[in-house]
Design goal:
With 232 residues, this protein is an alpha/beta fold. It is built from nine helices and nine strands.
């Protein structure tokens, strides 16, 4: 039986809030994944929607860069945390496959490290296309599809749930999601009318590795995949 992906993140919401908000803890995010993702982002426009916003740290970064940001998360607790922390015009607890905004409401959609946690990422991508203006952009970060051992999974081209708990710095976090091949995402983007502008495999910079030896293991392994796509 497949994992209840959305339910698992609601169950682990308090763990995630501690993991994301403890100063200096999540060096993979602050020292590597986020700085690389920022390089993809276009300049602020009419509005940005942060889909799968979690506790809101990406939305707060966007607001600091001048974006007007609306957020959505399936977890009611994480949506509350994002709303309370500020940076958003509005935060909604809802389903990414049924966004509560009108067509052509935004010129940028962000899905940071969340599509692999959704039961139907293709439907979420179609919804993001619906609420974007023509020529609007979607910026995506996911766990790299090549990061898992295909033999252990039973084959690269299928879909495989993962459920792992990581202990680091005195904190514990249960990560639950679904591995899918790269084509699953590129086909979903094309079917929704997107054209890929950038596809990047970020690596930690030497200064980040010097500050945190934990990042050294990623020097030769593709952990993350970043995509920027344009609608139409």
């Amino acid at each position: 039986m497949s994992l209840d992906l959305s339910g698992a993140w609601e169950e682990n919401a308090r763990q995630w809030a501690a993991w994301a908000r403890t100063p200096g803890h999540d060096v993979w995010f602050w020292g590597w994944n986020l700085p690389a993702f920022e390089e993809l982002l276009p300049e602020p426009g009419i509005g940005t929607v942060d889909v799968g916003c979690g506790e809101g740290r990406v939305g707060r970064m966007l607001a600091e860069r001048g974006h007007r940001v609306w957020g959505l998360d399936r977890s009611s607790l994480l949506a509350d945390l994002a709303r309370d922390a500020g940076g958003y015009e509005e935060v909604v607890c809802g389903d990414a496959t049924a966004l509560p905004w009108q067509p052509e409401s935004f010129d940028l959609a962000v899905a940071f490290m969340c599509l692999m946690d959704m039961p139907d990422p293709a439907a979420a991508i179609r919804e993001m296309a619906r609420v974007l203006v023509p020529g609007g952009r979607l910026c995506v970060a996911i766990g790299h599809p090549f990061n898992r051992d295909p033999a252990a999974l039973g084959g690269y081209f299928g879909e495989h749930d993962f459920d792992e708990t990581i202990e680091r710095g005195g904190l514990s976090m249960r990560f639950v999601g679904r591995d899918r091949p790269l084509e699953h995402y590129t086909r979903a983007l094309a079917d929704a009318g997107f054209v890929i502008e950038q596809l990047r495999e970020p690596r930690p910079q030497p200064d980040a590795v010097a500050q945190s030896a934990a990042l050294a293991e990623a020097a030769g392994i593709p952990f993350f995949l970043h995509v920027r796509a344009r609608l139409g």
